[in-house]
Write a structure and sequence with these properties.
1 helix; Ribosomal Protein L25, Chain P; six-stranded mixed beta sheet; mainly beta; single chain
Length: about 80
């Protein structure tokens, strides 16, 4: 399983996540990741959604996601503020 950071507000008209033009993915090896054919979890803060990487001729690398799988990470132990 692979996780990729994304901006869930940065989508095309079809609801696909635009990834290739995000500065945070400037050095991300999308072709190598896509070639693994593994489950990809796209993450934005505490939100996640399952999908796959596809290369769009117009927009570059896209996260083709299944929005019905969107959920919120629940992690243990819960995060606590560092004490100073």
């Amino acid at each position: 399983m692979i996780t990729l950071q994304a901006d869930f507000n940065h989508m095309d008209a079809g609801g696909r996540l635009r990834l290739g033009d995000l500065r945070m993915h400037q050095d991300t090896p999308f072709a190598e990741i896509a070639a693994k054919h593994e489950t990809i979890i796209f993450v934005d803060g505490d939100d996640m959604v399952r999908g796959e990487l596809v290369q769009d001729p117009k927009h570059g690398w896209i996260g083709q996601v299944d929005w019905s799988t969107q959920d919120v990470w629940e992690s243990y132990p819960p995060a606590v503020a560092a004490r100073g």
